[in-house]
Design brief:
Layout: E1 8-14, H1 20-31, E2 34-35, E3 39-40, E4 55-56, H2 59-67, E5 71-77, E6 80-85, H3 86-94, E7 98-102, H4 105-114, E8 119-124, H5 128-137, H6 143-157, E9 165-168, H7 174-188, H8 196-209
Parallel strand pairs: 1-7, 1-8, 2-7, 3-4, 8-9
Antiparallel strand pairs: 3-6, 5-6
Helix pairs in contact: 1-7
Length: 211
């Protein structure tokens, strides 16, 4: 008798600039995890591709999908909507795969309410100073947008306790961060909460055998 492999939903959140997207992509490349592509109403940044970083849609189409229950979660962040399409996630879970969701804090709480055994991980920088350096250093946003992101980070910091794990992504130590997250995902596979059916089978078989 073997434990049946269940699909695992892994929520990766973190401050803008903490590198959560890079961590997710590295996990996908190295370990073959499925990466759910979110939908957004913001414009693509230079180098971003449709269906790779995001599905880019206008606000009217996004709102129509909300009406049709097409997202397992969605949120508004710095003047734009972001959401996780439902069908892909449910298909991957049914197939027994590990699915990574890179989403914002408020969306993560919604995910946990729908999928209680989801694994919630928060990615942070080692200091606020480094967070500011990363946001200004990438040179893609105005000072006003960076200010909005820092104010949002202050709000997000108050919700870190909602996550089961926090992992620090230090500068030039990306591989260590990726391995820490991978180890968390691997260990989650053997949690008793995720293997109730297997445990019940063992309990029943032992009771029958010892009567």
């Amino acid at each position: 008798m073997r434990m049946k492999k269940k699909g695992t939903l892994v929520v990766i959140s973190g401050f803008s600039g903490a590198g959560k997207g890079t961590v997710c992509n590295r996990l996908k490349e190295k370990y073959g995890y499925s990466l759910s592509v979110s939908m957004t109403t913001r414009q693509p940044r230079e180098g971003e591709q449709e269906g790779v970083e995001y599905y880019f849609r206008d606000e009217s189409e996004f709102l129509r999908l909300i009406d049709y229950n097409g997202f397992i979660e969605f949120a508004r962040y710095v003047d734009h909507y972001y959401g996780t399409p439902r069908q892909f996630v449910e298909d991957e879970l049914e197939a027994g795969h590990v699915i990574l969701l890179e989403i914002e804090v408020q969306g993560a709480v919604n995910i946990r309410n729908q999928y209680p055994d989801a694994v919630l991980i928060f990615i942070t920088t080692p200091s606020v100073g480094e967070l500011v350096d990363r946001l200004t250093g990438r040179g893609t946003e105005s000072p006003e947008i960076i200010d909005k992101r820092m104010k949002r980070a202050a709000q997000e910091a108050m919700s870190i306790d909602e996550y089961a794990y926090i992992v620090c992504n230090e500068r030039d130590r990306l591989d260590e961060c990726v391995e820490q997250v991978h180890a968390i995902i691997e260990s989650s596979q053997t949690m008793t909460e995720r293997n109730r059916a297997f445990i019940k089978t063992i309990q029943e078989e032992l009771q029958d055998r010892t009567r």
